[in-house]
Amino acid sequence: PSIQEIPTKPFDGQKPGTSGLRKRVKVFQQEHYTENFIQSIFNSIEAKGSTLVIGGDGRYFSPETVQTILKIGSANGVTKFIVGKDSILSTPAVSNIIRKYKANGGILLTASHNPGGPDKDFGIKYNVSNGGPAPENVTNKIYEKTKTIKSYKVIEAPPVDLSKIGDFSYGPSAVSIIDSVADYVELLESIFDFPLIKSFLSSHSNDFRVLFDGLHGVTGPYAKALFLDVLGLPESSVQNCIPLPDFGGGHPDPNLTYAHTLVDAVEKNGIEFGAASDGDGDRNMIYGKGAFVTPSDSVAIIAHWADAIPYFKKGGVKGLARSMPTSKAIDLVAQKKGFEYFEVPTGWKFFGNLMDAGRLSICGEESFGTGSDHIREKDGLWAVIAWLNILAAANRESPNKLLGINDLLYAHYATYGRSFFSRYDYEEVPSTGANALVAHLNLALDSSSLTNTEHTSASTGTKFTVSGLYDFAYTDPIDHSVSKNQGQVITFSDGSRVVFRLSGTGSEGATVRMYVERYVAPEAGAEELKRDAAEGLKGLIEVALELSQLKKFLGVDKPTVIT
Ligand code: VG1
Ligand code: CO
């Protein structure tokens, strides 16, 4: 078929954020908007002769966008497209497929945990040949191309039927529509000890019940395959596992606020092990009756127990890492076990180079992201199965007492101490206020005006002395690229820490995140270590809000979400 060149003009603001370009669906639906961004991707990579994976969380506007990518990609010389059936592939599944079939890259259609539907969010993200999100040099290049684009190319061909698995030809290109789930299940089966998990769960079908909530995101079919088919659990162990274009009107974010369907069911039925994932399947929350695992603790505990997982038992643990705002719990595991460890900026793309260099095996972010070097994205179901594998292994050593989530948590705190951690999100606040807050902190940073000042919490009477204030910058140890302005950090003399950051995934206004962390050593004793996190952090949070004058700048009294 003939290739047509369609004239267009640049749109402002097509700058990929922490995880791709995310905007309201209505923005993507403007004439030429989506086409411009996709052509800009092809203008930034070697499209001719390439193999490209396409998938996503199935949200509203995905099927149309797959057809757009096929048209433009084919006109730009892509040889082969590998597409998930019905445009569905979770983010970890795409990462795996790129690696497994040695594709040159992939395009993911998702806005992750943001709500979907005609009035909600859509997103487009480009991943490179290692299966991970494009690094900043690539996303910057895409952005530059969006600013000068004059035309895009399309072929004229009838749309591909995305519901039929098989190999088809499409203009000059080939299209493979693949099963969304099979490769991913095979991958996890090569990593975990499923026979051990299965025998543990089947011998505790009454006192260790599992409930997974897909929040109507992409993980539903994956979870059914794993929990029902592979592990043989009853139907009642999964809920909300049909992917819907608008996630059933919900907010597919696995935290205590948005995953209330899971929290309610766990509490009502006294479920010992509950878990949820986000819209695109890369996040996870571990939550059982009376037991909540913060993501910062989760990755530390997985690292501590790595030997229980066949993949790490065999390949060893090469190193650990976390994003900067994530608590330092995982650092303590690395120190004790003698592993190398790293602190990178927020966003999974910063872990990829370390993994490719063979220096990183297990890593995580406080934002419910946990994963390993089995792929180059964070992986929600991987983390859930990792926890089940670890619990099954721990219980093998404890035949007389059934160990649950809290037993593992408390044992971990008793060995390493506990990093109390919380994040306050102020979503969709005016950008002017958010920028003023950043400027205020920069001023304090430049003038050292806060350093050595003492602050007393009004309600708890605890005193905190500021020991330092800095703007986090990162030099990649492998390619030496530098990323600046990655968050402002205030440190205190007792080792506590507060971080302020602007979100890079929002679609409207600005979102400010405040992260607080306070470490308590094992010597403090069980009672102190088991305290409620909100209580353990109360004084520090008060001081952080006072120091930053956040409420004044943002003009709001309370955060929209606390995790
Ligand atoms: C947020 C999280 C970050 C995560 C990113 C993408 O970014 O804080 O840790 O990597 O979302 O996650 P930001 O810039 O809004 O703080 V996902 O599941 O949306 O791919
Ligand atoms: Co996500």
From TrEMBL:
Keywords noted in UniProt: Carbohydrate metabolism, Glucose metabolism, Isomerase, Magnesium, Metal-binding, Phosphoprotein
Family: Belongs to the phosphohexose mutase family.
Cofactor(s) required for function per UniProt: Mg(2+)
Signal peptide: none
InterPro entries on file: A-D-PHexomutase_a/b/a-I (IPR005844), A-D-PHexomutase_a/b/a-I/II/III (IPR016055), A-D-PHexomutase_a/b/a-II (IPR005845), A-D-PHexomutase_a/b/a-III (IPR005846), A-D-PHexomutase_C_sf (IPR036900), A-D-PHexomutase_CS (IPR016066), Alpha-D-phosphohexomutase_SF (IPR005841), PGM (IPR045244)
GO cellular component, one term: cytosol
A Pfam family that the UniProt record links to this protein: PGM_PMM_II
Protein EC: 5.4.2.2
Top enzyme class: isomerase
UniProt-listed GO biological process terms: glucose metabolic process
Keyword Isomerase: yes
Domain Alpha-D-phosphohexomutase alpha/beta/alpha residue range list: 14-152, 183-287, 300-402
Protein name according to UniProt: phosphoglucomutase (alpha-D-glucose-1,6-bisphosphate-dependent)
Organism: Mycena alexandri
GO molecular function: magnesium ion binding; phosphoglucomutase activity
UniProt keyword Magnesium present: yes
Region (Disordered): 1-20
Catalytic activity, as annotated: alpha-D-glucose 1-phosphate = alpha-D-glucose 6-phosphate; O-phospho-L-seryl-[protein] + alpha-D-glucose 1-phosphate = alpha-D-glucose 1,6-bisphosphate + L-seryl-[protein]; alpha-D-glucose 1,6-bisphosphate + L-seryl-[protein] = O-phospho-L-seryl-[protein] + alpha-D-glucose 6-phosphate
